[in-house]
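Quick board copy: two proteins, each given as sequence then tokens.
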Amino acid sequence: MRATILRYATPTITGLFLVSLVSGIALFFHVGGGLFNAMHEWLSMVLILPFVLHLWKNWRALTTYFWKGPMVAALALSLMAAAGFGLASMSEGRTGGPPQIALTHALFARTATEFAPVLGMSGEALAAQLRQAGYSAADPSLPLSAIAARSGKSEFELSSALLQVRP
């Protein structure tokens, strides 16, 4: 059994890496986000197990790499790149993610009364329609994100509900 598992560790890593590569490139270029997002996230998590098995199988050979210049340089560059992206995402004013997501978060931070004119209605009218759509916590003075959370719904669901609202 152990030999069979270890025999398939590297081929499985290769297959999952190729899936991660293709889905990652598609996500980078904003192609098929709905199709590739869950695939990329979940199969990248699945990739962890064969990676660990691969390390286990090849540990003795891998340890010889760890103290050589190319491995040290590659790991150091990888760490610096990760730190650079981490620091950039923590910088002031950055909300993270694609601009349309950042815009949605900014809009959902507004109260129903502040957002309602975008839809050509009053805050009370918007709250009434949201209550009718199942948002029990809809109150004109609450931010849209709070209305969704207190109603037990996601912001994604709220976006769909707002598209159905009519003045």
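And the next:
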Amino acid sequence: MMGNALLLAVNAAVCMLIIVRLFTYRRRGAQHRAAGSWLAYVLMVACAAVVVRIIFGQYTSVDWAETLLNIALCASIYAARGNVMHVFRGPASEPVIGDKK
């Protein structure tokens, strides 16, 4: 049971890190894309729901694989400096989600 409590704490912390990085993203000249804004919003709401449910004891079981996936998502968001379009776009030759060509 102690391992599960540790995984819950790590999962909550990682979700908070994702929220903080997405919330503090600055465009710095990057083009605004509505799809990217909505994706960031949905990710923040989903991560916040996980954190709130853990705090209030409704999220009682977490798997190590889920925690590793959240850590990987967090690392990729930080590597992209909070720009979710950089995380989820394909190769440069492919259009970005929401692009009109």
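Board note added afterward: Residues 3 and 64 are 10 Å apart (CA to CA).
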